[in-house]
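FAQ: What does the model actually see?

It sees only this:
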Amino acid sequence: MIRALTLLLALAFVAPVFAQDSAAPNQPSEPPMTLARLGQIVKALDPEAEAAGNAFRLTISDVPVTIITDPVADRMRAIVPIRSAEGMTPEEVLRVMQANFDTALDARYAVAQGRLWAVFIHPLSALERDQFISGMGQTVNLALTYGSLYTGGALSFGGGDSVPLQRKLIDDLLNKGQEI
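And it is asked to produce this:
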């Protein structure tokens, strides 16, 4: 039984990689992402965005987002502060770790400098426009859904703990409604 479960989990991780490799190889690729191109996309997302050296500050759905780039190291990191990490219960820490496995998608919960953050990290030059925009949405969604659904968006990786936990709420409400 454990061997079968391990195989299923392994296939769940590997199958999407093979599917991506075999997808339309003749699609034109975008030019490498540069700091200037990233700045144009950021300004399209929020015309009030501010640039400061290799960083940007913008607001998406009333959520402040900071983007820090390092073109020399070829890295980009978008961060959203959520709350102080101090006082997080073991259950809250477990829940964000579960979400990192199945519902956070390309964004992640992270702890640094005493804070809980929603983060999206990607190599800068390989980053495509739509990946970046999706990553921004997922990061903001993680911040907005902290304490409730803990999700970066509409998708969920099968085999994790989040879907049954989210389904429990629906089942509990359905059970309460049966008394009517």
